[in-house]
Amino acid sequence: MSTRIGYLGPDGTFTSMALDQWRPAERARRVAFGSVDAALAAVRCGDVDGAMVPIENSVEGGVSATLDALASGDPLLVTGEVIVPITFVLAAPPGTALEDVRAVGTHSHAWAQVRGWMGRRLPDAAYVPTLSTAAAASDLADGDQPFDAAVCAPAAARLHGLEVLAEGIGDMQAAVTRFVLVSRPGWMPVPTGADKTTVVLFQREDHAGGLLALLEQFAARGINMTRLESRPTKASMGSYCFSVDVEGHVRDERLGEALMGLKRICAEVRFLGSYPRADGRAATIAPRAADADFAAARDWLGSIRDGSG
């Protein structure tokens, strides 16, 4: 039975480009969804076996729709990640001139990454939000839309027969977006030595030093964090959870001990998976924080407890 993988569509989105890079997806049947929530809901109910969704951008930070969807609802696991360079173009129907553009359609994350260029070249153009950058291009090609041009990937402009009015309009030319492949709990990648683990941490109550207590669980065991973001739990004003990426795999001794410490002090620890890093960079292991060091310490404690030490 073929694997079904959902993604934030339609074709021509950066998410579809991430799926192009994901080798196991070569023989998968792709299913496009109009939103991250819809794609992850399809994973949860079994309509698809997994979903590729954006989770972090080098300019705008975390993708709130993905972070919130993973922090709530039935548990899901991240099993892999892909890094995609982000290049934007301004595209319009053939015959449109740059000075004719009065309104521009695109996704909110894309707009945030081209605001500077728009302010310089099209300061009076209105912004019209769309479900995705590819949807902006598709809608524009279909006609009768409240915008004259779209900010999208070059592939989306070509796919929908649009004319490129300007290339490389991103404010940060080296921008990248990180995408993750998400599935239902079950299979988890084995440790590679170049892994990342994602968790969501919920405090028992808000108090001075609360975040420090969480972070100390990692610091005391020499675990490097690669991302830390707070997100409202939506339970009440001022109630936040923390979405964290750290170097290492849940099967590593140091990370296993850190998770046990977090389980003790947190109201909830939502484990979102351990998976290979897209860049293949090996984890930074602090002195005396290797698996052998933790095993030796455990053996020492055992010898004391059983009287052999």
Structural description of this entry:
This protein is 30% helix and 29% strand. With 309 residues, the chain is α/β, with parallel strands linked by helices. The chain folds into three domains: 1-86 and 174-187, Periplasmic binding protein-like II (D-Maltodextrin-Binding Protein, domain 2); 89-167, 3-Layer(aba) Sandwich (D-Maltodextrin-Binding Protein, domain 2), CATH 3.40.190; 190-309, Alpha-Beta Plaits (2-Layer Sandwich), CATH 3.30.70. The strands form three sheets. Strands 1, 2, 3, 4, 5 and 11 form a six-stranded mixed sheet that branches. Strands 8-7-9-6-10 form a five-stranded mixed sheet, with helices on both faces. The chain has a four-stranded antiparallel sheet with strand order 13-14-12-15, sandwiched between helices. Helix 7 (210-219) packs antiparallel against helix 8. The relative contact order is 0.15. The mean pLDDT is 92.
Keywords:
about 300 residues, alpha/beta, D-Maltodextrin-Binding Protein, domain 2, Alpha-Beta Plaits, 3 domains
One letter per element, helices H and strands E, the order comes to: EHEHEEHEEEHEHEHEEEHEEHEH
At CATH level 2, the architecture of the largest domain is 2-Layer Sandwich
Number of helices: 9
How many domain modules?
A: 3
Name the beta content range: 25-35%
Uncertain regions: pLDDT < 50 for 5+ in a row? none
Distance between the termini: 56 Å
Major sheet summary line: 6 strands, mixed
Q: What is the average of the pLDDT values?
A: 92
Say what oligomer this is. single chain
Total beta strand runs: 15
Helix content: 25-40%
Shape: elongated
